[in-house]
Amino acid sequence: MNLSELTFDREGLAAAIACEDPAFEAELCEEAYRVKLANVGKEVYLRGLIEISNICVKDCLYCGIRKDIHCQRYELSEDEVLASARLAAQRRFGSVVIQGGERTDPAFVRKITRLLKAIKEIEPAEDGDRPLGITLSLGEQPREVYEEWFDAGAHRYLLRIESSNPDLYHKIHPEDQLHSYDRRIRALYDLKAIGYQAGTGAMIGLPFQTAGDMADDLLFYKEFDAPMVGMGPYNPHPDTPLTLSGIGYPSAERRFALGLKMIALLRLLMPDINIASATALEVMDPLGRERGILSGANVIMPNITPEEQMVKYNLYDRKTIRSDINTLLSQITIGYGKWGDSKHCSAQHHT
Ligand code: 5AD
Question: Could you tell me the domains of the chain?
Fold first, then answer.
C-alpha cells in the first residue's frame, strides 16, 4: 500500500491499519507530521500529569489499579497536589492534568473542587503567562459533579471510550451497571454539553481488537468531534484477568507501530485537534513520546507526581517514566506558559 491509495472511510482506514509495510508506515507518519506543522504549528504543549490516587471503584479487566487487584493504594494530600502544581507553574508547563482512579464519594469530590480553586490561585511564573489550565481525568461522574468541577475552574476533561465497539468494550470490562458502554457515552456527551473540551481515546492492540475496530475508533473521534484525543498502545499488566486469560494480542513491536500509525491517521483525519503522545508509548521506547510527536501528536504530559507515589500508579508495567522532555530532537519546540487549547475548539466556539 502507499499513501496515494489511502481513503478515510472504514475500509480504507482498516486497510492502512492492517498494512505492516514499514515503508508505508514511515511515509504515513512523515505526512502526518507535515499536516501537524501546517495546521497546529511546530509547538508542542505540556501538561504536568498529577496522579492523585490509585484507589478505584472500577474493575476494568486490563487495568493494574482495578478494585480487585492487590496493590499498595495511595492518595496524595492536598498539599502534595498543590506542590506538584506549583512545580508545573515554575517549569512553565501552562497546564496540569489531575488523573486518578474513579471515585464518586463526596469527600473526594469536594477535595477536587477545593484543589481546582487553589490551583487557580497559583501565581504564574512569568508575566504574560496565564494561571495554570486544568484538565481532569477522573472517570465517570454524575453530571452535577462534572458541573461543580467545571464551575470551580476545570476546562478540559479526558475520558477515554477505551474501545468504540460495544462488544469489545464489554469483553474488557466486567458485565455490570458500573461498566456500561452506554453510561460512558452519556458521560462524554454530558461533558461536552457542560462546556468542557472533552477528550477521548482508546487503547490500541487489545486482545480481540481488529483493524476494523481501530478504524471505528478513529471514526468515533470524528463523529464525536473530539477537540483532543489521547490514545496509546495496550500494555499487558501481569496480574490482570485480561493477561491471565492468555488471549493473544499483537507483539510489543506491532503495538508500538500501531500506536504511532493511529496518531498519524488521526492527524490526517482531524488536522487541527490536540493529540497526546501517550505515556504508554514512552514505556515501550525511551523516545516513544518524541516519536509520537514526529507522527503528528502535539501534546506531551510529563509526569510530575511525587516519585514515591508515582511508582504505585501502576496501570501497566511502567519501568521508566520521565518528567523531562527530550528536546534534543530539533523539531520539538515547547509552547511554554500556554494553555495550548485545541485549535479545533477555538475555531468553533470562540472568536
Ligand atoms: N495498557 C494500556 N493502557 C491502559 N490503561 C489502563 N490500563 C492499561 C493497560 N494495561 C489506560 C486506560 C485508561 C488510562 C488512564 O490508562 O485507557 O483510560
Answer: 39-334 (3.20.20.70)
